[in-house]
Protein 1
Amino acid sequence: MSDTIEMADKYIFNTYKRYPIAISKGKGTFLWDEEGRQYLDFIGGIAVCNLGHANPVLAKVMYEQALNLVHTSNLFYTRPQAELAKLLVENSFGDKVFFCNSGAEANEAAIKLCRRYSFEKYGKGRHVIISTYNSFHGRTLATLSATGQEKVRYGFEPFLEGFRFVSYGDLNSLLGQMDQSVCGVILEPIQGEGGVILPPENYLKGLREECNKRDIILIFDEVQVGMGRTGRLFAHEHYGVTPDIMTLAKAMANGLPMGAMIATESIAGAFGLGAHASTFGGTPLVSQVALHTLKLLLEEDFLSDVYQKGEYLKRGLRELQAQFGIIKEIRGMGLIVGAELDRPGESVVNLAMKKGLLLNCTHDTVLRFVPPLTVTRKELDTALEILKGVFKELS
Ligand SMILES: *Cc1c(COP(=O)(O)O)cnc(C)c1O
């Protein structure tokens, strides 16, 4: 075992189930470990490195900004932050952006904004937020309170008051929970950690209509599926429905920590001076990298090609499904694809890793494919070829 692994195991909290690989270098869709072994990376830092590892354009942006200005605090204005917010607003439903550092922080901000908006308008008692089972919104106590998965909630009671859960995709049970105490609904337009679950036809539309009628805030958590992952800049664009608040993080700055909450003007207005803050939120360094990440995502034909590559990957997986039958179902949109297996995914993941393909398994039985969006068709072929070898060995 490399001494990196020994050292880390000795000195770092034992909260992560890590693979016994110490990564030391990346380039595009490839990673290398300390022994020099090469891997095709279909995890992409968990849907973070959308423009590939060690992206040379972004590396240069990062370097030049670091030489110029890294951090000022939000007591001052900086150009990168302003330009990033402008470009996000120009390319979304929203009017205003709040910057933070992670997905949990973005959702935390959304929960607070939702409550504050409702409090200002309707007074006390209208503070319930409806969430869904199988969702994932983060690990802070408020976002954990909004997360519908027992395995991540275990042992942290009591949770924050005012969250209710309904089954994802069941519009009637959601509408059934909408009473006078409800101020918001939070959900992922496509559930990521929950196993790549797509919403049924008209689910989001029906939800939007009901939220409009009742002045209930609709929050879309696009932390995983936003920033081009699905072949549109934001996943909700596929469904013709816009939220009142959207949260982003993961891929925003291609690997630097950044999160954001985007809201419409009228709702953003509920956060006045001093209502919320973050020391690091939107530093010039991270904002400049996020700005250029966004510009690259918006280049002509890039996102439509992401969508097509997703279709290509799903076609390849369907062929494997026909040959081996280990795959029960294939789901996804653009380059977030899930293959539900007839068994726990761990054996597949471990064998694939030995053959040089890094894959992630979520929800126990779902292989999740979230490669960098810059992945080539040739690399998709290689990954499918490796998987074929794995399935052969397992059948
Ligand atoms: C990863 C994720 C989060 C949490 O993001 P962190 O940056 O780890 O706090 C929240 N929501 C969704 C949908 C995610 O995938």
Note: The longest helix spans residues 302-324.
Protein 2
Amino acid sequence: MTNLQLLTFLYLLLFAAFLVNCHSQEKKVYVVYMGEKQNADITVASVQQNLHYPILERVLGSSVAAKESLVYSYGRSFNGFAAKLSDEEVARFSDMEGVVSVLPNTKLQLHTTRSWDFIGLPSDLYVPNSKGEDVIIGMIDSGIWPESHSFSDEGFGPPPAKWRGKCITENNFSCNNKIIGARYYNHEKYYIETDIKSPRDPTGHGTHTASIAAGREVRGASYFGHGKGIARGGAPNARIAVYKACWYYGCSIADILAAFDDAIADGVDVISVSFGVLGFEYTNDPVAIGSFHALRKGILTISSAGNFGPSRAVVSNCAPWLLTVGASTMDRKFITKLVLGNGQIFTGVGVNSIDLNGTQFPLIWGGDAANYSANSFSQTSKGCYPGELNSHKVKGKFVLCEQRSTGIGVLMADGAGIIMPVQTFDEPAFPFSFPATLLTEEEIAKVLGYIRSSEKPVATILVAEAWKDNLAPIVAPFSARGPNMLAPDVLKPDLVAPGAEILAAWSPVASPSIEPTDTRTTNFFINSGTSMSCPHVTGVAANLKTINPTWSPAAIKSALMTTSYMMDPKKARKRKRICLRVWSTQPVNCSEPRTSL
Ligand SMILES: *[C@@H]1O[C@H](CO)[C@@H](O)[C@H](O)[C@H]1NC(C)=O
Ligand SMILES: *[C@@H]1O[C@H](CO)[C@@H](O)[C@H](O)[C@H]1NC(C)=O
Ligand SMILES: *[C@@H]1O[C@H](CO)[C@@H](O)[C@H](O)[C@H]1NC(C)=O
Ligand SMILES: *[C@@H]1O[C@H](CO)[C@@H](O)[C@H](O)[C@H]1NC(C)=O
């Protein structure tokens, strides 16, 4: 796809979203949640449907209307249904006895910082036997790439007897004794070109999270040579059950609840979800509802805290029965150096995988390359957004930009590389499709000073290096912080785990950079987000379940939370004065001496 095609495609997508909205103004999909399932014996979906038709009929007036309206009938693990309803019908269901809540079918986002969060675009754009083979991890995500070496079933026996799930083998998808079950959910039947109608993962996200939780050892794994080593999940001997509820457009509530309904009844031991909503009451939050019924069956749900940090009070998945995971940095940090023509070297944040062999490229500031005929001028073109740059001036050059982006503006104008600002050096590095590095604003100003003071400014960008980060772990800047706005006395997140620059399995058809049109192929990818920290804890929880099969979700959660320890005692001793940043409307000055703490 060319860049223009991509833009056209995005417009079409927006337009399609608009059409869907228009069309559904009369009737939209709602989830009518009715709490505990009524009849313990009902495990067959069709029987449950017969229970829901009469309820729908009462409100909609006819059995034909009821049949047309029903989207999902939940009943394997909890009671409720999804149906197309008008505002008036919603009001009637809301007042009905036995109905806990009626949830509009909004879409949740995966908690990866890849691309959209990174570039600041709104994301709504769219372990018995001692080996753990009896523990089943349910992954509700964007599917899985079953052929990845991380999911090899070599040496695995058949699924444990308790397993009641199934494998949807549509479109060339197959399970094995590692991936023992796979289903997908898309009630809208809305698929874009790159979506695959099967549990297969075209995006890489579900493959990445599943391999972090339960991937087997893969030797020589790397991202184009970077981070080379043995890739291994937290519980390499656990089985994986895949519930694909997330698509290009996000994960809709009706689909998420269908996934939970199945996962619980199928007999998984832990559930992992790397998405969430912010600020929904528990009775309106699909993860809170699903995980509650999971808990009632002794299944712990591990969830991601979200990536809206470093702001406060932005943590998702706040229900007390969830194990909510924030993200920390690791001692490995990828850096990408920029070398100027005058010999100055800047160490930037980046995972540049393109070897320029030291070749120097002319360097230009975006503000000096405005496309005047596109009504751009220096003050706007310095941001390097698409359409702002004059390709005659930018072609074959490195461009210094003063705004963060995917770099598409520079790519469209045939630039050879990009230098962009980053708020702090602590932020995670993202792979780009072309040479790129991110510098702090002071460094950007220095590079600009060089451009201004030299007749022929040139520079080169080196391939990424892995550095030992002695400050790690710290809470990653993007990781959502508490307090919990719904119930401030329930502390959230519960734990942090590594979530920055994590190397794990990837779908070969997915883009290997934040540029969606990047056609290179990789089986491993470096990704950041609480999406990545969550499955780390899932893996550990699965191991605990293996060793202690009788432990309740609360026992597992408690064990994990009460055995965490300070990773760097030296650092703890040095920091004598603790500055507690309490949540308040008054800014806290941490330089001010405090004696009360
Ligand atoms: C099915 O998947 C396998 C493994 O990726 C591949 O080798 C084969 O070509 C695929 N077949 C079709 C019809 O897509
Ligand atoms: C750098 O050198 C490698 C190995 O010689 C080569 O494959 C690559 O194309 C070169 N890169 C550039 C940008 O010339
Ligand atoms: C400047 O912008 C116009 C209008 O978008 C575009 O047609 C033209 O190709 C651009 N010129 C250059 C040199 O990039
Ligand atoms: C914070 O307190 C220190 C010491 O009292 C003072 O020097 C500094 O100006 C204060 N900073 C702000 C932003 O108020």
Note: The pocket of 2-acetamido-2-deoxy-beta-D-glucopyranose (ligand 3) is lined by residues 371, 373-374, 387, 390-392, 413 (CB under 6 Å).
